[in-house]
Write a structure and sequence with these properties.
It contains 11 helices and 28 strands. The protein is α+β, with helices and mostly antiparallel strands and 441 residues long. Strands 22, 23, 24, 25, 26, 27 and 28 form a 7-stranded antiparallel beta sheet that branches. A 6-stranded antiparallel barrel has the order 8-9-10-13-12-11. It is globular and about 60 Å long. 38% of the residues are buried.
């Protein structure tokens, strides 16, 4: 689990009439029936990674292990978990409630939502659970979390949904369910169930200064997870919609400048990519997107999620406010993964798309005006750097040398490759912190 530092009915009728619905219903007498029905589908996931150690006369290797949780969503042995549970694993082992162990292979990952799909290697049928409609889950509803905290084996905790649609600056598609059900390290990838035994969330992140539960846990909503899981099962990768616009939430200054009645909607901050879907459809800078394919748009995140969920190639209506008048424009949605990887003026390297820190790029990723370096604008889920880097990161140095444009990175790596250099240290800035990662020339 990733820890984020911020780490007799007649006699009771009259009595019940005086209580609120919550008081009248009270807590469940027991969660035992629910747990018994779903526990067989919750699994322990252990991984191993071979690490080569140098500096000795004879290279040595050791095996690093990690533990997490997951759940089976298909009788054929398809397992859902978090991507960070199985990252860089050379071996994945699934352990069922009854102790049976099986090898598993990776079917696909999505770094944007930290989800992964595995396939158990066995010729048998497995118990499974299904996703529920997380959009119908309400704040205050009871939920049950099941997982493998600290490698102790199947453990159950119960609580309520504390909040919906939480944005914790963890990625472009932040939309977490918050719960006070105890979630600890090792619960990563485990299911969050509603009272009907349906998965309404995938436990992913906790806020904690100690690494233990303090009653603030976050889960990827079941509806979002089910969409990603389906794509990974069918295609091995995601296919998100792409509009080709740079967006901003509407500030008070923008509201005044454009004489808007409210701050609802998403502002097209820059001229759309000329050959992108929005540009080809005729969307302009300073248009306010109010509805996308029938979905009301309140802010940029709502629009980003609506676009991402749209079928690639679909032509959809987009309602924009332009010069005080609403107009409807038909837009044919492209694929984000393809568009991001082949933007003009970029280079693709080690599964990354890199761009210079131009004014447009700084504005897009909320970078300071004086930012220098090379901006990561796309990370392929299959890249060896997918666990270290994400969109909006700024690469400042490669092997202790400053870099200011993508070509300088390519040049540095080409020279290092010629002399047979091993993994090279790169200095990366993400918001207010800096860290080192390694890239192989």
């Amino acid at each position: 689990m990733r820890a984020v530092l911020f780490v007799v009915l007649a006699s009771t009728t009259l009595f019940l009439q005086g209580l609120s619905p919550l008081q009248a219903r009270g807590a469940p007498d027991s969660f035992a029936g629910l747990v018994e029905s779903v526990m067989p589908a919750v699994v322990n996931i252990s991984t191993a990674q071979n690490i080569q150690q140098t500096g000795f006369a004879i290279p040595t290797g050791r095996e690093a292990t990690s533990l997490g949780s997951g759940f089976i969503v298909d009788n054929e042995g398809i397992v859902v978990t978090n991507n960070h549970v199985i990252q860089n694993a050379d071996r994945i082992l699934i352990t069922l409630e009854d102790g049976d162990e099986y090898e598993a292979t990776l079917r696909g990952v999505d770094t944007e939502t930290d989800l992964a799909v595995l396939q158990i290697q066995a010729d048998r049928r497995f118990p499974s659970v299904s996703f529920g409609d997380s959009d119908k889950a309400r704040v205050g509803d009871w939920v049950v979390a099941i997982g493998q905290p600290f490698g102790l084996g199947g453990s159950v905790s119960a609580g309520i949904i504390s909040a919906r649609n939480r944005v914790i600056s963890d990625g472009l598609y932040d939309d977490y369910i918050q719960t006070d059900a105890a979630i600890n390290r090792g619960n990563s990838g485990g299911p969050l169930f509603d009272m009907k035994g349906r998965v309404v969330g995938v436990n992913t992140v906790i806020y904690s200064q100690t690494g233990g539960s303090v009653g603030v846990g976050f889960a990827v909503p079941g509806n979002l997870a089910s969409t990603i899981v389906r794509q990974l099962i069918e295609q091995g990768e995601t296919t998100r919609g792409y509009l080709g616009v740079r967006l901003e939430d509407i500030s008070k200054e923008t509201q005044k400048r454009l004489a808007l009645s409210s701050t609802k909607g998403a502002l097209v901050a820059l001229s759309p990519t000329p050959n992108g879907p929005a540009g080809l459809a005729g969307i302009l800078k300073d248009d306010i997107i109010l509805r996308f394919n029938g979905t009301p748009i309140t802010d940029t995140r709502k629009l980003s999620r609506a676009v991402a969920d749209t079928r690639v190639g679909a032509t959809v209506p987009v309602v924009v406010l332009r010069n005080g008048r609403q107009i409807t424009i038909s837009v044919t949605v492209a694929r984000r993964e393809t568009a991001a990887a082949f933007q003009p003026g970029t280079i693709e390297l080690a599964g990354l798309t890199l761009e210079a820190a131009t004014a447009d790029i700084k504005q897009l990723y909320g970078l300071e005006d004086n930012t220098q370096g090379v901006v990561v604008t796309y990370v392929d889920a299959r890249s060896p750097l997918s666990q270290s880097l994400r969109e909006g990161d700024v690469i400042l140095e490669v092997g202790w040398d400053q870099v200011k444009d993508p070509e300088s990175i390519r040049g540095h790596l080409d020279r290092l490759r010629e002399v047979g250099a091993g993994p090279v240290q790169i200095l990366v800035r993400r918001e207010e912190r800096m860290f080192y990662a390694h890239i192989t020339p």
